[in-house]
Amino acid sequence: MTWHVEIDPQQCIASGSCAAIAADLFVVDGAYARPLKGRIEEDERALDAADVCPAAAITVRDGAEVVGPRP
């Protein structure tokens, strides 16, 4: 299975917490962070990044279901 990872540029504050957790999944690119790939294999670090994002800008989906950030 693969997950779809997206970062909302309207919310992102480029804190870098996502890239610190998973540098192979996220990068800070100027004023925003972005996922290096839109689709990834299931990876707990993507959920961790979504959970700790101070701007709640990261969404991880499994199909139509939002799996991250976790409640």
UniProtKB/TrEMBL annotation:
It comes from the Bacteria. Gene3D superfamilies: 3.30.70.20. The lineage of its organism: Bacteria, Bacillati, Actinomycetota, Actinomycetes, Kitasatosporales. This is Ferredoxin. Ferredoxins are iron-sulfur proteins that transfer electrons in a wide variety of metabolic reactions. One of its GO terms (molecular function) is electron transfer activity. It comes from Streptomyces lydicamycinicus. The keyword Nucleotide-binding does not apply. Keywords: Electron transport, Iron, Iron-sulfur, Metal-binding, Transport.
